[in-house]
Amino acid sequence: MKRILFVCLGNICRSPMAEFVMKDMLKKARLDRVVEVASAATSTYEIGNPVHRGTRQKLAEHGISCAGKTARYLTRADYAQYDYIIGMDDGNMNDMHRMLGGDPDGKLIKLLTLCGDPSDVADPWYTGDFEATWQDVNRGCAALLEKLKQEL
Ligand code: 4NP
């Protein structure tokens, strides 16, 4: 069993997109019973709110539902609960280190580094460009899937 937690600032745009793309990929790879996926926020801005309409629409275009997901806050206890805690940008990584009390077990990863790319995942909050986020999230999750297949 592996447990993955995706993290971004609000937990309404990028990290829920990664959560539901990853769940879809795992299901298609028949690994959904051995990998658990969730997502959380480093800020309190959107706690309790549903997934942003832009992310919801982009997922729906690809036949993926995120019904029922609401934003939740990252807590220190999450560090022990998950095998990998995956941020979307450098700001998330800084916040995650601070909120989780460091990274003694090497669990914290910035998503696109799994593709050998030091870039941040495109942030749609100011641009409204959810397609760019979709592309980044998909290549990051595809790389994560390959990593998990090797480890399981
Ligand atoms: P997310 O997007 O971190 O990808 O969920 C954002 C959501 C909310 C805010 C910023 C980014 N905000 O400033 O409230």
Q: If you had to describe this structure to a student in words, what would you say it looks like?
A:
This protein has about 150 residues and is α/β, with parallel strands linked by helices. The mean pLDDT is about 100. The protein has helices at about 15-30, 55-60, 80, 90-100, 125, 130-150, and strands at about 1-10, 35-40, 85, 110. Helices cover about 45% and strands about 15% of the residues. The radius of gyration is 14 Å and the shape is globular. The chain has one domain (about 1-150): 3-Layer(aba) Sandwich (Rossmann fold), CATH 3.40.50. Helix 1 (about 15-30) crosses helix 6 (about 130-150). A four-stranded parallel sheet has the order 2-1-3-4, sandwiched between helices. It binds 4-nitrophenyl phosphate (4NP). 4-nitrophenyl phosphate binds near residues 10, 12, 13 and 125. 4-nitrophenyl phosphate binds near residues 9 and 11.
Quick overview:
With 152 residues, the chain is α/β, with parallel strands linked by helices. The chain is 43% helix and 14% strand.
Supply database-style keywords.
6 helices; Rossmann fold; four-stranded parallel beta sheet; binds 4-nitrophenyl phosphate; 152 residues; alpha/beta
